[in-house]
Amino acid sequence: MSIYVGNLSYDVTEENLNAVFAEYGTVRRVQIPTDRETGRVRGFGFVEMNSEDEEAAAIEALDGAEWMGRDLKVNKARPREQRNSFGGGGNRRNNFNNRY
Question: Which residues 6+ apart lie within 8 Å of 52 measured at CB?
Answer without folding.
Answer: 1
